[in-house]
Amino acid sequence: MAPDIEVDSLDVWYGQARALKEVTLHLGPGRVLALIGPSGCGKSTFLRVLNRMIDRSPQVRVKGAVRVGAFEVLAGDVDVTALRRTVGMVFQQPNPFPMTIFDNVAYGPRIAGLRQMAKLRQTVEDSLKKAALWDEVRGKLRRSAMSLSGGQQQRLCIARALAVNPQVLLLDEPTASLDPVSTAKIEELIVQFKTHYTMVIVTHNLQQAARVSDAVAFFEHGRLVEMGPTHDIFTAPRERRTEEFLTGRFD
Amino acid sequence: MIRQSFHQELAQLEQELIRMGALVEDQLRRAVRSLTDRNIILARQVIEEDDRVDAMEMDIERRCLTLLALQQPLASDLRVVSTALKIITDLERMADHASDIAKVTVRLNQEPLIKPLVDIPEMARIASSMVRLALNAYIHRSIEEAMTMIRLDDDVDHLYARVFRELLDIMRTRPDTVAQGTYLLFVANYIERVADHATNLGEWVIYMVTGQRKELND
Amino acid sequence: MADGQWRGARPLKSPGQGRAAHKILAGMAVLAVLLLLSVVVPLAAQAVPALNAAFLFGRAPGAIAPEAVNTVTMVAISAAVSFPLALLAGLYRVEFARPSRWTQAFDQFTGTMLSVPSIVVGLVVVDVAVVRWHWPVSTLTGMLALALMNWPLTVALVVEALQSVPGLYRDGSWALGASRWQTVTRLILPLALPQMIEQGGMAVARLMGETAVLIYTAGVNVGPGWALGGPGESLAVHLWLLRTEGVTDLASAQAAATGVVLLGLVFLVLWGSRRLAEWLQDTA
Q: Which of A91, B137, C15, C258 could join C239 in a cystine, given CB atoms 3.0 to 4.6 angstroms apart?
């Protein structure tokens, strides 16, 4: 069952610079939230808090409460490994590991301790099917992942994330480097994944946000300016800044 | 201001829309005047002008579709374009009614009227001023003006009911007036329809400004 | 498309401005090869009179087999000791330490050590190992000096190899719930190892040619058999000795022959490490 996400007064600093300011929002289970806003508005930071990838950033400090299903994400005693298995992530640049297609998808389960070849095979096949890549790579699982096209690589990364049975997917501009056809395939996946996974997607493509999301959150200067149903935000936003951003009257 | 050329195109679209609205309003006034003045030449002009309105509708529609396809407008821009698409349909229907009224003028030719026209010109005056007010509301992005305008529809409806009763009474007592009486009933009905379309304009203006769709015409 | 339409097609010539640069660079490459040959060919020619089985493998005085054994063992053992240590240090530096004043100091220290002349390292080793600890001038002391000399370079090449693995891979691994240690052992090391081995080969080759530091620490003569505590003259030192103090008629030919053997060993190390790296890369 897909979990809900609840964020309460989240603050994030990088050193002295405040990247997020009192962000509060709630996302229902199985819903797709699109984060939009100008570059450097904090949307990627927000995404990286949800699976604690933010820990990597030097001098980062966080305040507030973030709950993903049963996980108190910011609690000191949270099991980060379990959290990251539950909250999968797909990155802007397709980043398959330079190994075979099979080993890429099997990487997560192996890390988690799965050794039986039969089960691994099954997991790999299931994940590739879910990511709509199976038909293209069936019988070629021993080939290098680097031999795939950019769009296939990104779907491989989605399959890799799915292989550890996540309930939430974080997508950080997943189609930024892809051609329109590959982009459409990824968007179609996201739409199909609805209700099975709770998803948060960062995108600079407003039409993409309109096509795939149920809700939209507009960030500016680290603040959540407005969040609402996708239809409402794109036809009649409540806030002037959202309006200006969407209509290109933004400076 | 980033999408400058796009917003210039939007402004042009609005200009075209206002020009079309003004033409339709003019058509309406002239159609009713052709009837009261028994001016067949004027009536024929109105009927011919209808093609111009149709051409304008097509042109604006094409502009809107181009903007939707190429610029993919959002938020208020999206509402401006979609409102324009709806408004031109209403305007085109109004122009059709004006043309219908002019056709009645032609049909009646110089036949003497069964009664002096008082309420019908009054209805037409209110209806065409509704169109003008709606266009003003559109230009000013004013909900208040749109609401005020929509309230005038009640007056038109009252007058229409009165004209309807009067004409019915005349036709009941003098069967020879049925042919002309029916034509005049049509005219009253056309004007009432025009007022309804004008009400739609007001509703679209309100949607364009607020993003809320309200049905005010019952 | 009609058959034979390609007949009208012609290859595009590269624009003129590119060709001049191309010629200059090609010329420089040829020059470099010629320079190398101008060293190797006369050396080999000079070595011919001394290149025989007795000189290479014999046990008579003047044969270079003991020097060859000394060279290989000293270099191999010192590298075998310093590489794992450097690997641990490099791993800690790149994969585990958070950027801080300590990591800055670490980088500065290894950077400085890289530019310390080897002879200074030799002097320090003599001062500490020979004078204070009373180690003999021997194979062991030579190894210590070589290991110490090699250490910063090895750390630097380990760090560089690890840093050449894109951070995107680490992100991908961590996002799947892998720990740092798992990420390093399952993903990063297999990717970085080929580069480490190839560059490690170069570092080893450099050690084989090292003389200055070994003159004080390993000595300029050989014992009757190989011993950790015995004198450990290397090929390069032997060569130097023959050229500067050789008195026999064959001295210069022997020096050249020693050089040829040393060159052969160096090529062998470079070639071997390269092949190993390629093999690892293919199986990864």
A: C258
Residue type, C69: V
Supply the mean pLDDT for chain A: 94
Rounded Cα–Cα distance for residues A132 and A129 (Å): 5
Query: CA dist A48 to A172, A175, B118, Å?
Result: 9, 18, 74
In a mutagenesis test of the C interface, which of A95, A103, A160 is the best target, namely the one with the most C β-carbons within 10 Å? A95
Over the stretch B36-50, which tens digit does the pLDDT of each residue have?
A: 999 999 999 999 999
- CB burial of A228-251 (b: ≥16 within 10 Å; e: otherwise) equals bebeebbbbbeeebbbbbbbbbbe
Prediction ipTM score: 0.92
Inter-chain residue contact A84 with C177, CB threshold 8 Å: yes
* B contact test, residue of A235, A238, A244, A251 with most B CBs within 10 A: A235
Segment C207-266, tens digit of pLDDT: 888 888 888 888 777 777 777 777 888 888 888 888 887 667 777 788 888 888 888 899
Q: Is A79 touching B (CB cutoff 8 A)?
A: no
Structure-block tokens of residue B96: 């059709």
Q: What is the CB neighbour count within 10 angstroms for residue A91?
A: 21
Kind of pairing between the strands at A60-68 and A5-14: antiparallel
The secondary element (H helix, E strand) that includes residue B97 is helix B75-108
Task: Report the pLDDT averaged over residues C169-181.
Answer: 94
- Burial of residue C60 (CB within 10 Å: 0-12, 13-18, 19+) is exposed
Number of Cβ atoms within 10 Å of the Cβ of B13: 18
Task: Check whether C7 has a pLDDT greater than 80.
Answer: no
Size of interface A-B (CB pairs under 8 A): 46
Q: Is the pLDDT of residue B18 over 70?
A: yes
Give the whole-angstrom CA distance, residue A7 versus residue A3.
13
The dihedral through the CA atoms of C149, C150, C156, C159 has a sign that is negative
Are B75 and A248 within 8 A, CB to CB? no
> In the structure encoding, which two tokens stand for residue B35, read together?
């009837």
Nearest to A81 among C98, C99, C179 (CB): C179
How close C191 gets to chain A, by Cα (Å)? Answer: 8
Mutate which: A247, A250, A251, vs B, most B CBs within 10 A: A247
The distance of C94 to chain A (nearest Cα, Å) reads 13
Residues of C in contact with A143 (CB under 8 A): none
How far is B78 from chain A, CA to nearest CA, in Å?
7
* Cβ <8 Å between A236 and B79: yes
Interface of B with A (CB under 8 A): 1-3, 6-7, 72-79, 210-212
Contacts with A, C 189-248, CB within 8 Å = 191
- What are the tens digits of pLDDT across the range A133-182? 999 999 999 999 999 999 999 999 999 999 999 999 999 999 999 999 99
* C neighbours by CB contacts (3+ pairs under 8 Å): A
Strand pairing category for A5-14 and A215-220: unpaired
**Cβ neighbours for A226, distance < 8 A, ≥ 6 positions apart:** A217, A218, A233, A237, A238, A239, A241, A242
How far is the CA of B150 from the CAs of A54, A222, B120, B131, B218, in angstroms? 56, 44, 19, 10, 11
Q: What is the pLDDT of residue C209?
A: 84
pLDDT for residue C283 is more than 90: no
Q: φ and ψ at C105, to 5 degrees?
A: -60, -40
Measured between CA atoms, the residue of chain B closest to residue A205 is B72
